[in-house]
Structure formats: C-alpha cells, structure tokens
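Entry 14. Ran structure prediction on the chain below.
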Amino acid sequence: MRLKGKVAIITGASQGIGAAFAVGFAKEGAKVVIGDISDGSNTAKKVGEAGSEAFFVKTDVSKEQECMAMAKAAFDRFGAIDILINNAAMFANIVLKPFTELSSEEFKRVIEVNTSGAFHCIKSVFPYMKEKGGKIINISSASILEGVPGMPHYVASKGAVMALTRCMARELGDFNINVNTIAPGFTHSEGGDQFDRSKALPLPPLDELQLQGRCFKRPGVPGDLVGLALFLSTDDSAFITGQMIVHDGGLSLY
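Output, structure tokens:
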C-alpha cells in the first residue's frame, strides 16, 4: 500500500470528489481526517469499510481558527500530518448568471472559501510538516483555461489557487514540502450535478457543451481523479512541485 502509515487531511470530503479521495487514500493505507462544513460522518464510515481509520472535524475553511483547530485535532488523533488536499470549495450552490447580476458580496464569499480557505489550511498544517516534509494538493479548475461565462467569481478564485500554489511551492521547497494543483473539468458528482441543474443562463447540459471538445467522449467522474491525487501524494512525485495538472479529458489542450 502506497500510503501505509500516512495521515491525510482532505477538506470538502463529505461527498463527491473529496469523498472519492478519502476512500481511495484509505485503500492505500492512509488515515484520513475529513474537514467539511457539512457532515462527513458517512465518508468516515466508508473509509472504515475500506480498511482504514477516519474522523470528521466540522470546519469552515474560510475561518482560519477553525482550520487551525482541524489541523491540531488531526495531529492529536494520529500524531502526524503528511498530506493536505485543499478540496473544499463553493461550487454546487453557484448559479451561472450574467456578471451584472452578481453582487460584490457573492464574489467576496467565493474568494473567501475557495482561495482564502486553501491559504488557511496550508498555514494550519505547516507547523506539522516543516520538520519532515509533506504533500499539499490544491484543487483548482480547468475553467481557468476556458473562461466560462456566468461565474467570474468561481473562475477567479480557482485561478488564484493556481497562483497560490506557485508561491507556496517556492516558500515550502526548503522544507521538503511539495505543493501542486489538480485542475478538473466538469465532473459528475453531487455538487457538479446540482451546479448543472441550477444554471440561470440558457445553456444545455454541460456535458453536451464539452463532450465534442474532449479527446475522451465520456463524462468525468470523481473516481477518475483519485489516481492522480495518489501520485502527487507519494514519493513517485518527489521532484514535482509548483505544477498544475489539467484533468478534463483533453478539453483544454495547452
């Protein structure tokens, strides 16, 4: 097992992509801490069924002190923090609509969760990683390459996550901490499907828009992302940092 004895904090893991990460990491031997504003007890149960240990810490990542408390709880329970996946984000409840109808308050709230939340979590785990190294994976979005209309706040927040990744890779390299980004395309999960149903713009289902441009003519699902996250969490990626890997079936060919 590639992650035997490792401890991973995965935010936004109560469902969807984060839950897939948690179960996939458990199958590779990792102990998992689920940080989410929603109840993560069901994911913790699935981790147990996969043969590992997990516990849920209710966490609003936009609040630094709650992130600090989550990291402390992880260390107190398992004695280490080896991996952080910054997956928590506002997405499912975002409604695609003209930017003229988007309030400044909505814009700021998305930035607070999606960008500041990742920053808070990195600050929180650093004291536990700085002596022995670690792996940090930030979840951005392929939308930053596509320029999706109707969601400038989300796209801007995820572009900032990639910029943050590069800064943190520079600062944390001396501590043997790898910092990388995964940028998924539209993925069928609870959150992704809710987002698709909530569009206020006159658009067809997102798969209809994207499938023709993909190299692989099928929808993306959370399980597709697990192998890449595992690679970035092991010594197989020991000399990779500050990078963004786009995971959208070849829609964005750059």
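The radius of gyration is 17 Å. Will compare against last week's run tomorrow.
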